[in-house]
Amino acid sequence: MATEALHGGGGIADHIHPEPQGFIRKYVFSIDHKIIGIQYMITAGIFLILGGMLAELIRVQLMKANGGFMTPDTYNEVYSIHGSTMVWLVIIPMLTGGFGNFVFPLQIGARDVAFPWLNMLSFWIFPVAGLMVYASFLMGAPSAGWTEYPPMSLQGQAGTSMWAAAIFLVGVSSTLTGINFLVTILKMRAPGMTFTRMPLFVWGQFATAPLLMIATTALGAALAALFMQREFGVAFFDPTKGGSPLLWQHLFWFYSHPAVYIMILPAFGILSEVIPTFARKPIFGYKMIAFSSCAIAILGFMVWAHHMFTSGMAPALQLPFMVLTMTIAVPTGVKIFSWMTTLFGGVLRFTTAMLFSVGFVALFTLGGITGVWLAAVPFDLHAHGTYFIVAHFHYVLVGGSLMGIFAGLFFWFPKMTGRYLNETWGKVSFWLFFIGMNGTFLPMHVNGLGGQPRRTATYDPQFQGLNQIESIASFIMTAAILIIIINIIVSIRNGKRSGHNPWNARTLEWQIASPPPYYNFKHIPTVFHAPYDFSEPLPYRGLEHELEGTVYENESLQPAGVH
Amino acid sequence: MQQHKDPPVRLGSDFWIVTAVIVVLAILSIVYWAYAPIDSWMHEAVDRAAQIDLLFRFLAGTGFALAFAVLGYILYFSLKYRRRPDQDDEAIGLQIHDNHKLELWWTVIPTIFVIVLGFISVKLFLEIEPVNAAGGTHVVEALGHQWYYTFRYPGIHGEVKEMHLQVDQPVTLHVTAYDVIHSFWVPDMRLKADMVPGLVNTLVFTPKRTGRYNLVCTEFCGTFHGEMRSGTKQDAAYVYIDTPEQYQAWYSAQQRANANVSDAVAVASAGAVNLTGGDAAAGKTLFTQKCSACHAIGPFDQKIVGPGLKGVLHDPAHPSLVNGDKATPDAVAKILQNGFNGPMGTMPNQTANQLTDKDIANLVAFLDSLK
User: Fold this and answer.
1) What whole-number distance in Å separates Cα of residue B189 and Cα of residue A479?
2) From the candidates A62, A286, A336, A337, which should be mutated to test the interface with B, based on the most B CB atoms within 10 A?
3) Least CB-CB distance to A343: which of B67, B74, B103?
């Protein structure tokens, strides 16, 4: 194959393959991390729409205490697939495969990830697995929630086995992505980019990658065992044949608690880019934010059994899990206080990305506080399995992860396409989302503590009033997401042109053209500082030629001295 | 990494005003939750409820205080430091990188908070955990079924469908399940234990307030999980806390009513069930108790969970049962005995349904009588 050597810095061998031509090689089976990132985002975006529609079916059913919109069996399938979709097919792939793939190789000055072909494989497993999850509806979808506790899941319909196989595949995809990202961050940073000069989004991915690699294997083991039990009668979980239902819970949560951090650490990273950029200030406490991500990732492995305080564990086991879970509040608090203090003394530009980020800090704080409450076993004895839990994790995953995804979308969309998303409609969608989100999930705290259990198609009529408020507010939230989708579709062709660095940001990806060229950097730059000193010149050398040949239709966006 | 010294930070009077407001709100929230009338919102029916509510008062007071602080400062900074119209694109904020003293404080204070909370929680946990708590004199067993509860009492044969406790008499409650995981939760008691097949979980508490309380399942257990709570047609029980006189009256009545009930757990018999002498009238009663939650006495298509069973042995349109066997009394008995897992869900087996061989014979006789 013909190769063309270009000048590179720092002794990195620069063998550049020519950009593949033809639609299939360029956009379908691409090995370019940017295309793969966008493929992940589009696929996860489609699953977000599907999962959101399932969420609305749930809210329509719960408008009335006696339901009646769906049969209980259908309702159980709907909420199970809603949860599975949002966790495995939306938030995890969006934050790791999507934003991770597109952004962090650019931020470390790399031309691609370490294993581009593996990256393509990771992606193509994901839509196949997603289709399998939805195909399970055809043969009777799983109905025991996204957690699929046996023995309930042993009674589940045929689709439960299909679901197990599909989630197993998602796990394989995650593991491959984790390996790929970890090696890339360790081995492919530009010269001079020491660990303490890495952008915080890269730190987020760096803390997440080992979780993807290690935790996901436990999920794979659990799913394989469930599949074998269901299809071949191997009695891992059936107590009548000597199996243990709790075995599944331990294996499942050994993955699914770290998975909570897989879903939030990259979003923390997005925030740590957006907030300093629009505050025009260095991020407050860079090192503490970076190290607290690692502390959270390590602690995240030691707390899984806090999901099982009512399941029946030895008290001697419950105590360390309770105390370690509370400990996570310390590094998480450090992050929240650091973002809060970054706002202090800034020149704050409330773009849509900034609104979503500040909203994230506020709502995630509330979800974090209720998380500490739930860590206390005696309180959890009351709240476990109720709508209080549903409220808590939606504050973290919708108020946190999903708002982080929207912040990242509005922030990096100009880098991906060279065009802005419409800011006016963006702000409208933020406020609708913020109001709808709180209206949907705030009342659930009250209902949960008052006695409403989760995962029910019908409920005690005393909870109907607040449930109707929740349903109506959820329609507002859906309207906000519809506006964002329309915004994307319109802006991709007709959005205002943004130039290469519309937000005046300082990380490496903003110093090259938008969208970035194939292979990203003509010369690998050399890095001299962390990127957040707004009073200083950019801490990079070797970027002089990056914008050459970039022609913008709008003259005012043409970088000075580049024609 | 950073070459320059951070600029000095001066905090204006408005910062201290905001801080004062936040401190006042925080104190108010702690005081409010210390005295909030939780008992009037939700009864504290047992001693544990009051103990757990005390922990909740601490959590809610400090939690609201922290929320006021974070949300308050975010709102204040967002308003105060938003970009003014006279500031251009190049305007930058205070170039502060960190402040070790501040960072030390907001690491140390939460750490102290976590230690205090940990101490309180561990102490309460050790008080209420069954292995440490003084065992109750009154031992009750609760059993989860799809989708109702039954209870066993010393001195009462068989299982009863309501739970009665005596006020001020300490209880040791053992819970487990027949089929899948259920949960025993009485919100007014603030106590919950999962009912796991093959595992016995225990709660120890003392009832403190007489009355009737809702019992709710919080662990997903199948089609009618949402109906597995007091007061629905699934017939899930209430929990009653009685005066000693009421309790004795109830206990004696149950003893008498169940005097002839066998304590033996119905176990699937090895061979085929002998169907001779089945009593259709007894089968009809049994059907309304055990089967009608899932099966209608109507045509095959009248599905609740399983198919309608009218004419199951005499319907020319459906010569076969759902498992493919020809519709004969013996084939129906086989399903009743072993259960069946099919596209409509799971039909529990003889053990899970608590049916004796005689019960099966009666049920088959009843189904045979439907034409």
Assistant:
1) 40
2) A337
3) B74
- A235 CB within 8 Å of a chain B CB: no
State chain B's mean pLDDT as an integer. Answer: 87
pLDDT 10s digits, A248-273: 999 999 999 999 999 999 999 999 99
Residues in Cβ contact with B308 at an 8 Å cutoff, skipping those fewer than 6 apart: B295, B296, B297, B298, B299, B300, B301, B302
Backbone angles phi, psi at A454, to 5 degrees: -85, 170
For B287-300, what is the mean pLDDT?
82
pLDDT tens for residues A4-28? Answer: 334 444 434 455 677 888 888 888 8
Q: How many residues does chain A have?
A: 563
Distances (CA, A) of A239 to A152, A154, A452, B225, B354: 12, 11, 29, 21, 18
pLDDT of residue A463: 95
A149 burial type by CB count under 10 A (0-12 exposed, 13-18 middle, 19+ buried): buried
Pairing between strand B148-152 and B138-145?
Answer: antiparallel
Question: Which of these, A195, A328, A283, lies nearest to A505 by C-alpha position?
Answer: A283
Q: How far apart are CA A547 and CA A538, in angstroms?
A: 15
Q: How far is CA A406 from CA A427, A498, B357, in A?
A: 11, 18, 62
A311-330: buried (b, 16+ CB within 10 Å) or exposed (e) per residue?
A: bbbeeeebbebbbbbbbbbb
Instruction: Give me the sign of the Cα torsion angle B98, A335, A406, A36.
Output: positive
Total residue length of chain B? 371
Is B7 within 8 Å of B94 (Cβ atoms)? yes
Lookup result for tokens 């295309």:
A35
Picking from B226, B258, B30, the residue whose alpha carbon sits closest to that of residue B147 is: B226
Q: How far apart are CA A343 and CA A333, in angstroms?
A: 16
d(CA A32, CA B150): 61
* Cβ-based contacts of A369 with chain B (< 8 Å): 63, 66-67
Helix axes A423-450, A403-417, angle to 10 degrees: 160
Answer for the pair A522, A545: CB distance below 8 angstroms, yes or no.
yes
Q: Which residue has the tokens 């990732």?
A: A297
Q: Are A476 and A513 within 8 A, CB to CB?
A: no
Chains A and B: how many Cβ contacts under 8 Å? 264
Of residues A369 and B329, the one with the higher pLDDT is: A369
The three-class DSSP label of residue A549 is coil
Residue B291: how many other CB atoms lie within 10 Å: 22
Spatial separation of the C-alpha atoms in residues B33 and B287, rounded to whole Å = 51
Q: Do B1 and A196 touch (CB under 8 A)?
A: yes
The two three-digit tokens of residue B240, written as one number: 């009653």
